[in-house]
Amino acid sequence: MNKDFLWGAAMCASQAEGGYLEGGKGLTANDIFPALNEGRWEALYNVPESLQKKYNYYPSHQAIDFYHRYVEDIKLLAELGIKVFRTSINWARIFPNGDELEPNEEGLQFYEDVFNECGKYGITPVVTLNHFDTPLGLYKYGGWKNKKVITFFERYCETVFKRFKTQVKYWITFNEINMILGIPIVGGLIDPLKEENILEAKYQGAHNQLVASAIATKIGHEINPEFMVGSMIGAGKNYPYSPNPADVWAAYQADQEEYSLIDVQVKGKYSAYMRRYFEKNDIDILATEEEMALLKTYTADFLALSYYSTRLTAANNEDKEATGGNIADTLKNSYLEANDFGWQIDPLGFRITLNELYDRYEVPLFIVENGLAAMDVADENYFVEDDYRINYFAKHIQAMKEAMDDGVDIIGYATWGTIDIVSASSGIMSKRYGLVYVDLDDEGNGTRNRYKKKSFDWYKKVVTSNGEELM
To answer: Could you give the 3-state DSSP secondary structure of residue 9?
Structure first.
């Protein structure tokens, strides 16, 4: 491994911080789970009082309390010897409703304190600007479907770029930007129940995010030419269910649609496949010549990605067994094992995915999320002997090293949810990724104290050996 390789740890604001209305913060969609998760869309109009009789625990309201315990948590992460900490700024801490003219100083000071704490240990923050936390106040505009939100995002970016221009080098504009197509309410604050043409609304919202990302890249480079401003995809190769050409074509289409937004962020234009897709599906994107010029000029400096599993795709899903996946289910691959939630474990698929992304985009890759979700059970001393997680990481890191030997340029690697955090999709705590166990259950009971799992010392050995000691 290159001596400059960036080993890291990862989490995000909405799943870790808590303090959901402290320090002047506004609301985001994450703050009204599990209501939204159950389709209780009235939560968007009356938050949170109208639902308090049914729901008395909203996981992100306290989360694991990183907001008050960040000094302890960063010290714990520093023990691993990591070089980078991938986290996010919650936009609603800086502009509580999203459309204010002036930022909230308490929010800015909080992140300044967090980044200063990282600096004490020589840890560089890798910061996501929008990790599924568009301020709920922008719902009244129609969310990201409305071009006014681009202006609000631009103001937010300029504010944080200036404030943290000496503390942060790596920025990611949108977490897993392709997720706006699968979960538009979380990814783009676009309400499926209010749209006559939800497909068009999703792609309009996605286009506006692409424009906002290009503007952020432009501003970032102007404020600090040393900034690296990247895009991010929720990655995972789509395999065909069988050699049937119809299945191969279905998998190809799934990949093209998965890559459609990253194509724009890295290559500066929509692919021919997607232009035909828009025409075929009567999708009329409002895109000006000025916007297309911005997209062409201000492309991503690197491509960040999350990877958990590959997907299996067929032309016809009838009579085929489904299994769990990141956001959306997929078909079950009989050649692969799965985690406790049905997500299929595929280290070779990781190598395939990394090679394909690098071949397609020819920009450095940054793995900012990789991990195993499991129903960890702690003993009476809160110790978790998670050999299954160690095995997962060892195989995936080895696959990453082989991809690098293949010629793939990779900046760094960060384990996801390095300290246990609440689930983004469900809000549960029992779905654990961490190397550190947090004493907290699905109903919010527990001390929130931290305890190292067996995988903690294992990953410390990996980091200090620069990936040489995997087992």
So the answer is: strand
